[in-house]
Input
Amino acid sequence: MELAGITLYKTLVMAILALTGVFSYRAGIVDEAVNKKLSELVLTLFTPVLLFISFQKEFSEELLSGLGVSVVLSLVSFAVIWLICKCVVYRQDKDYAAVEHIAMMYSNCGFIGIPMAQGIWGTDGVFYMTAYVAAANFLLWSHGIIVMSGKKDVKSLKNVFTSPTILAIVLGIVCFLAQIQLPAIISDPMEMIAAMNTPMAMMVAGINIAQADLRHTFMKFRLYWLSFVKLVVMPAALIGLFRLAPVGDEVKTVMVLATSCPVGVTGSLFALRYGKDAVYASELFAMSTIISIITVPLMMLLC
Output
């Protein structure tokens, strides 16, 4: 119950940050071009720095074991999610099925999951969340591209290994294992940069929501159904499955939180890139993000 209360409080705080983004867009302070730059800033600087800083810890076998468990549970999570996605998009039009599959399978664990984990558990939460984020990045730029394009893209697969997120995680793990601690003159400003991740990420999410036609979006029943599957069915299935796993509750709860996050904005970007319905992808993002204000604390209560 305490975890659900903390999650609700953090969700409301982040909702206010997102509303700041909505206001900024509606007031003309930012536009689509500025939002794209802000999004790149979060993805290529703030989030990677936050992920790296989360590994600046004193080595312990408990943390290392928890990270290994996180990797295994992340892969199990994506296997379960993939199976549910295949059932839900069955018999859908091929192009719409691709958009829905990617939208539901890859949550907004970077923009929302990491800030939530940081707010609830601090750097330990981010530490375990990195496993899910890494798995999501690898799968998104491999499986995601195959689903969206209908063909394999070897060049994009190579880009996975050079993305700032993956590089930050790999470098962080190396420093953690070798116990390389940065001097204060470097770590202090990096921690300040990392602290900017949550407000900036949520403002970007709010700006994306502001660009959607919500009145039109709220009239589509299938969006409610897909949001229900994404935000309730998938995490609930993992909660039931993880109860059988003899591992720490914190690690399992972080994995559930990552899965409970709404649809990621990357689905819209992929839809644009591969000629699918980007508007529909944006509607899925907006609908699930709004509903997640209620469902994320609910999932934490079930945990």
